[in-house]
Amino acid sequence: MNKQQIIENLTAGQLKDDFPAFSVGDTLDVHCRIIEGDKERIQVYQGVLIGQKGRGVNRTITVRRIVANEGVERIFPLHSPRIAKIEVVRRGDARRAKLYFLRDRVGKSRRLRDQRRGLKHIG
User: Fold this and answer.
1) Which SS3 state, helix, strand or coil, does residue 18 take?
2) What confidence score (pLDDT) does residue 75 get?
3) Burial class (CB in 10 A: 0-12, 13-18, 19+), 59
C-alpha cells in the first residue's frame, strides 16, 4: 500500500455523502454554519456553481452570485463541517467544466438556459 492509498483510507471517514447530484451550471443553495461568539446560525448562500476542483476531502466548489450589481464568488470546501447542506434550486445547461466566462457577462446574458427535458444528468 503506497502513501496515497494510506492517506485516502484515513480521510475516507471524514467524507460526507449526503449531497444531491449537482454539476457546473446549477443554481445552488449552500447552507453555511456561521459562529458568532457562542451563538451559531445558518446562512444561505445562493448562486451559480461555476467550478469544481480537487477530489476526496480536498474537493471544493466555487459559487458565484450577484450582490448590488457586483459579482461575488465564494469557494466552499465541500466536506467541511461548516457546510450544513446543499440544495439544487435549478439545473443549468453548461457545456464546459468551468464557467469563468460568466464573470464578464452582465444583464440577461449572464443567465444559463435550463437543462432540457430528457437530458440525462451525470452527477
Assistant:
1) coil
2) 97
3) middle
